[in-house]
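User: Structure please.
Assistant: Input sequence and predicted structure:
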Amino acid sequence: MGGREYVEITELSSGIVFRFYTDRAEPHRLHVQARWGVEPETAVRVFFDEGAERIWLADKQCYETLSLTHILVWLEMEPRHILVITCVPRAASHHPLQNEDESE
C-alpha cells in the first residue's frame, strides 16, 4: 500500500475539489476530524469566507486562511484542486483572536 488515503469533496457551486487526508494515528478518520474535531464542510466554508485573511507562507510554501473561527492551511495542487493540510479552531491555534476587553 502506498501513501495515506484521502477523500475528495467537490464544492458544487464552484466546482472546486478539496482533498482531505486521513489521520496518521487514526487512518479510518480524516486528519481535520481526528486532530481538531473539524468537519470538512467547515474547512470549505473557511476557504470561501470573504471576510477571512489569506496569507502566503513562503517558508512553508502554503496558504493560511484566517477566519474569525478557524485557520485553514492549504495549497493549490492544480487549478481548482485544493489540498487541505489542516483546519484548526482559532482558539486552539497560534493566532487566537484577542478579546476586546483584554486590550483596555
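The radius of gyration is 14 Å.
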